[in-house]
Amino acid sequence: LGIQYKRQGRFDRAMAQFDHALALCPDDGEQRRGLQRNRAMVLGALGRLDEEEAVYRKILARDPADADAHSGLASLLLLTGRLPEGWREYEWRFATTGGAVRRPASGLPRWSGETVARESSGLIIYTEQGFGDALQFSRFVPPVAERFGRVRLYTRKPLWRLFEHSFGALAEVVAEDMNAKDESGFTHHCPLLSLPLALGITLESIPADVPYIAAPPGLTEKWSARLKPLPGRKVGVVWAGGEIYGFDRLRTVRLKQLEPLLDIGGISWVSLQKGNSASQIAEEGLSDSMLNVMDELDDFADTAALIEALDLVISVDTATAHLAGALAKPVWLLNRAGSEWRWLLGRNDSPWYPTMRIFRQQQSRQWEPVVREVADALRDR
After folding, report:
1. N or C: which end of the chain has fewer CB within 10 A?
2. pLDDT value at position 245?
3. Contact 326, 319 (CB under 8 A)
């Protein structure tokens, strides 16, 4: 029951259930540690970060191999800007319960930042996790390409065309399953989200030169011409994330909740929404007032070209927000109260994306104040 309340963002109720469960669980084994880890996550969601950290460190003092506690601690450290220790702890992501992140099956030694002979070395990079992660951390391909004579980037098919155009001069971009590969001619491998650890990235040294992604020119010209007749400012909008994400209901809004934005004059709205939530356009009677061409887009290269034709992107925490930031497009992020570590704490900007502005939810599930703030900013703009 505590887990269900946690997923719904009802953190006070979740805390009460975990406290009660701990009182009923006298043993000091895995079941109790699991309750403590869940309770720690709720402490973090309630802003009690020192208490959350103390729980993880207490668990690890007793069991240094508790991967889930390491993973929770990693998120907390990265959220609070302690990146060097956070990246080290984040390596435990491959061993967490449920195996949400796969470790690349490679016969090559793992590159950990050591100096290599450039001309005779080659690095294979494996993308991992979601599309947003791949877009955010692909910025590390250029600095790595300066160290290795050969680089291959494995990625998921929807990103292949965009990455091939953006990084093809620096790396061989391959759209294959990470386990279907030939490693001949390469000397090392590294998962994409382990590159910051290998490169010693701190909060101050995040490479934030944008754009580091570019849409193919032919596509950009196509969508610029398509959107040119639209009057006023052209603003793209995303209101829902992918349904498979565990906390999707907390980061997602209904299109109807954005009505204060949609009523502002002088704006042509363009949907960037994929998936089932796109049906809300018709449900809310907005088919004539919001351009929806997402069925015409095949992959992220198409989406990038469409974004290039816009003046602004407004998005909840999805891959589209990362894509707009990587393209150096002005992007406004509607961020949930239990923020992802990628957006740090209490900031309205992002060291990852100089063109991003963050509008933060102060209380879980309460989007109305955020929408009002965005509406005011949109009128000012």
Report:
1. N
2. 58
3. no
State which H helix or E strand residue 237 sits in: strand 233-238
Rounded average pLDDT over 260-282: 94
> How far, in Å, are 33, 50, 193, 214 from residue 138 at the CA level?
35, 32, 9, 12
Return the residue matching tokens 């001619």: 185
Residue type, 213: I
* Mean model confidence pLDDT for the chain: 93
**Using an 8 Å Cβ cutoff, are 275 and 252 in contact?**
no
- Does 380 have pLDDT greater than 70? yes
**Does residue 336 surpass a pLDDT of 50?**
yes
Q: Strand 233-238: give its sheet, edge to edge.
A: 290-291, 267-271, 233-238, 312-316, 331-335, 356-360
Dist CA 356 CA 331 (whole Å): 5
Q: How far apart are the first and last CA of the chain?
A: 44
| Edge-first strand listing for the sheet containing 172-175 | 172-175, 150-155, 122-126, 188-191
121 vs 190: CA distance, rounded Å = 13
Question: Are 267 and 302 a contacting pair, CB within 8 Å?
Answer: no
Give the containing element (helix H, strand E) for 349: none
Cβ neighbours of residue 324 closer than 8 Å, sequence gap 6 or more: 236, 307, 313, 315, 330, 331, 355, 356
- Count of other CB atoms within 10 angstroms of residue 120: 10
b/e 183-219 (16+ beta carbons within 10 angstroms → b): eeebbbbbbbbbbbbbbebeeeeeeeebebbbbbeeb
* Number of C-beta neighbours around residue 30 at 10 A: 12
Each residue of 111-169: pLDDT tens digit? 999 999 999 999 999 998 899 999 999 999 999 999 999 999 999 999 999 999 999 99
Per-residue pLDDT at 257 exceeds 90: yes
Question: 3-state DSSP call for residue 326?
Answer: helix
Work out the pLDDT band at 182, boundaries 50, 70, 90.
confident
Quick one: how many helices (H) and strands (E) in the chain? 17, 10
H helices of 146-299, in order, are: 157-167, 195-199, 217-227, 248-251, 259-262, 280-283
Query: Using 50, 70 and 90 to split pLDDT, how confident is the model at 178?
Result: very low
Distant-in-sequence, close-in-space partners of 33: CB < 8 Å, separation ≥ 6: 59, 63, 66, 69
